[in-house]
Amino acid sequence: MLNLMSLGDTARYLPDGAIQFAGRADDQVKIRGYRVELGEVEATISNHPSICKAAVMLREDIPGMKQLVAYIVTQRREEQQLMNITQLKEELVKFCKRYLPDYMIPRVYVQLDALPLTPSGKLNRKSLPIPQQQQLEEDTTRDHQVDLTVCSFIFTCMGLHQKTSTVLFF
């Protein structure tokens, strides 16, 4: 592997001399045009008093819809066990908004008993479960409402009557 200009991208030379991009050497991902350090998001979530451990991944379980998913392990206190995942998610989003920009805040939270580990004790990201369809649909519904609001405004400004988020403007 070749490290191109020390930017964190790894690549390799193909037999014909071309360079093929192989991925990132770090945990930096790109979502909605922004570069996000997953470790920074994980550290912020882990600083919440209810959270014992956290892992964050960029997932694209629905084609074309990339989103940050946080896998969390809560502290083993009785009062935290009474809190459901919806309440915990709302609390975590408020907490993260104090320290992170909006594009770095995970949209889906999955509560686990323990994070999966490799035999050597490292986080096994490939074994993290796919979020339930209900969690993904809730997020999609929120995005759809934002899309409809923006489209409604644009259609009003353009003097058009059809209000749908599926029309292509360009």
Q: Based on helices, strands and strand pairing, what is the structural class?
A: alpha+beta
Mean pLDDT metric: 78
The low-pLDDT segments are none
Helix content: 25-40%
CATH topology of the largest domain: GMP Synthetase, Chain A, domain 3
Strand content: 25-35%
Quaternary form: single chain
Number of strands: 8
Give the tally of structural domains.
3
Describe the main β-sheet briefly.
3 strands, antiparallel
Report how far the terminal alpha carbons are from each other: 40 Å
Side by side, the strands of the main sheet go 1-2-3
Please trace the helix and strand order, writing H or E for each element.
EEEEEHEEHHEH
Summed up, the helix count is 4
> What is the rounded Rg?
20 Å
> Which CATH class of the largest domain applies here?
Alpha Beta
Mind explaining what this structure looks like?
There is one protein chain. With 170 residues, this protein is an alpha+beta fold. It has three domains: 1-26, no CATH class; 32-129, GMP Synthetase, Chain A, domain 3, CATH 3.30.300; 132-170. 31% of the residues lie in helices and 28% in strands. The protein has a three-stranded antiparallel β-sheet with strand order 1-2-3, with no helix packed on it. β4 (28-31) and β5 form a beta hairpin. The termini are far apart. 15% of the residues are buried. The mean pLDDT is 78.
